[in-house]
Amino acid sequence: MVKQKKIKPTQSELDILRVLWDKGFATVREVHEVLSLHKDSGYTTTLKLMQIMFEKGLVKRDDSSKTHIYKANISKESTQSQFLNKMIDTLFSGSSSQLVMQALGNSKHSKSELEEIQQLLNQLKKQ
């Protein structure tokens, strides 16, 4: 994977990337089959989006055979980080603690999730 450029994927592109991150690589048809389970879109729409994503550098394409195989060219983690940083800046005035307090206050967490969060906080305190 290449270092993430400042290209912010659209929601539809994120849907496609999610499929590719889960599968590793896939044809347009395979991506379309997964997407069609959750939303109504045509095969040609998926094809066109994936072609645009290739042009933008969001995906790689192996065209050595008749059926093109696509793979994400940006990592899930860098994309999450990009969106998270933008959200912290715009919605929480740059305050990570406000984001965490909002997230923890608005949903239920399992004991194991809270223990994992506590371990992370302990590690951050040591740094």
Which tags fit this structure?
two-stranded antiparallel sheet; mainly alpha; about 130 residues
Topology overview:
Elements: H1 11-23, H2 28-35, H3 43-56, E1 59-62, E2 69-72, H4 76-91, H5 96-105, H6 111-126
Antiparallel strand pairs: 1-2
Helix pairs in contact: 1-2, 2-3
How is this structure best summarized?
The protein is mainly alpha-helical and 127 residues long. The chain has helices spanning 11-23, 28-35, 43-56, 76-91, 96-105, 111-126, and strands spanning 59-62, 69-72.
General form: elongated
Number of helical elements: 6
Number of strands: 2
Structural class: mainly alpha
Low-confidence segments? none
Strand order, biggest sheet?
1-2
Helix content: 55-70%
User: Mind telling me the C-alpha Rg?
Assistant: 18 Å
Spatial gap, N to C terminus: 29 Å
Largest sheet, in brief, is: 2 strands, antiparallel
Strand content: 5-15%
> What's the average pLDDT?
90
Oligomer: single chain
One letter per element, helices H and strands E, the order comes to HHHEEHHH
